[in-house]
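Hi everyone, sorry if this is the wrong subforum. Our group has a chain we'd like a structural model of before ordering constructs, and none of us has done structure prediction before. Sequence below.
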Amino acid sequence: MALHLKNISKYYENSREPVLQNINLTIQSGEFVSIVGVSGCGKSTLLNLIAGLEKPTGGEILLDNAPVTGPGADRVVMFQEHGLYPWLNVIENVKFGMMLAGLSKKEQETRALYYLDMVHLTEYRDYPIHQISGGMRQRTALARALALDAKLLLMDEPFSALDKQTSNHLREELQRIWMETGKTILFITHSVEEAVFLSDRIVILSPTKRSVSDIISVALPRPRHVYAQEFVDLRHRILEEVRGEKI
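Answer:
Right subforum, don't worry. Here is the predicted structure as tokens:
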């Protein structure tokens, strides 16, 4: 699988300034790529374009050489808000997308239990959503996304609404899951530390150019440790670059 963005631009109606322009990016199968940048630089817009929730004004998005023209089963999105259904319990929420996709009840059950075990929620499978914590709700949402077995997992600041301790725990879980599954992940975040912790490559978006200002490879061994000197040095370098892109 490969995702190709070719000269992508995005303008909104009645606006002279682009949200994005001349975006060129390739993501290979199994890569974990994060996009960082200050607020308003177009991170979430870019993810929405790849998800097919919005259409680019110009350019082309290809997934496995097929044009992205709208939402599709080959891409699944996990947003900041978990989007779980409060009238369904944990396992029913994980099954919901698979039910819509037409999978058999047996396959739904098998996949749901497999991914609930992966996110350490098996014992909470029958809990109502209101009875589990915010972090557990995001883990439920992650299990639901993984269970759809899409080619590309798009994550839009999924941990930003959580407290620091919970967020740190979930990114460790996500790193473990990514290493186990080899999923292709595009991750939007405000946190440079989070990006360095998780990513193979980090894409920096410029709010002035409305385009990619740099792509940085992260060659640190996994699992990563935020207090290691090489981690701190890289985090500082990227943070300074992001700050330098402020308007």
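For your construct planning: The helical segments are 43-51, 90-100, 105-118, 134-147, 164-181, 192-198, 229-244. The first helix runs from residue 43 to 51.
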